Amino acid sequence: MIGYQMVGTNNFEKSAAFYDALMGEMGASRMMQDDKFIAWTGSPTETAFCICKPHDGETATTGNGVMTAFMVESPAMVDKIYAKALELGATDEGAAGPRGEDSFYAGYFRDLDGNKCNVFHMEMPSA
Asked: How far apart are CA 10 and CA 28, in angstroms?
């Protein structure tokens, strides 16, 4: 399984403040950091999300078709996190709401560096 997801940033301090606030809303906090890297998680057994200054010293860029999806416990939490992201300066990539015919509820945004993110909740069918 995935241990962590990392995105590059061109403004480390602004990105750190953005994700401190956003991850805090999801119950996550910093688990590791140095002057070029920060990782957040809800627990050591969960996947971590990280920002970094690119190792090669070049400009961080976003990948076409690349997206980080954050899973939360309810549609109400999707609404809350999506709204918080926009409040923090993210740009809208698709308002929070139901998607498709299944019970998938999501909101899409781009962070301060243009990285595409999604916050979602999906009801699992009963057995």
From this structure: 23
Domains in the chain: ranges and CATH: 4-54+66-122 (3.10.180.10)
CA 37/CA 9 separation, integer angstroms: 10
Q: Where does 19-110 show beta strands of DSSP type E?
A: 29-34, 37-41, 48-52, 68-71, 91-99, 104-110
DSSP state of 32: E
Residue with token string 């916050």: 119
Residue type, 30: R
- pLDDT (tens, 9 = 90+) of the chain, 127 residues, equals 688 999 999 999 999 999 999 999 999 999 999 999 999 999 989 999 999 999 899 999 988 889 999 999 999 999 999 999 999 999 999 999 999 877 899 999 999 999 999 999 998 766 6
Distance in angstroms (rounded) separating the CA atoms of residues 11 and 38: 13
